[in-house]
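WARN no homologs supplied; continuing
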Amino acid sequence: MPNDKTKSDLEKDSSKTDPTSAKPGILGPVSRRSFLSTFGAAGLVATTQPLLAAAQGSSLDDAPAAPEGTVPLTLRVNGTDHKLNLDPRTTLLDCLRENLALPGTKKGCDHGQCGACTVHIDGRRVNSCLSFAVMHQGQEITTIEGLGTPEHLHPMQAAFVEHDGYQCGYCTSGQIMSAVALLKENCGPSDEDVQHGMYGNICRCGAYPNIIAAVQQVRRQA
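OK structure emitted
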């Protein structure tokens, strides 16, 4: 019949569409299984090489790089050294509260006008909102948390409790830190002298007479 094809003709037609019988000059004769195996192995190598390179490039001895825009420093706070990487614009107040979890130092005005953020730097009282943390490496920083504990109150803390030298309590830590520093400063004996010495600490509740009484009691005992 005109449409009948010989066995040789059928084999030639099938070779045109069979991917396993490509021309020897291009891929060479490959089977479907070998083609898939080769493709899968190549994909595995491509995805594994970056992982191996990352593993070889890392080591337990490698120190983590400091985040971009930060500087390394060590701050000694309440007798403990803390290694930090900080934005150089970080205030000492924000560092204490946010990085070292010492919230006893309060953020009031954030402009150095209320005294709620008062801490000691080498025994001297400082508004921590006006000072950059990076300025105090190598210095001794003391906060209200380092002044005393509930079991062993500093005499000034005990006097504030005895004379009810606080109401809302927000300014109290700054008041106490200033009062303790005042004990070492050149301050006259009168209540007016103490009032002048504590001028930088604002109590919005108006507990000034009680605060002065507490300070005077400790000064007499000293």
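The beta strands are 71-77, 80-86, 118-121, 124-127, 140-142.
OK
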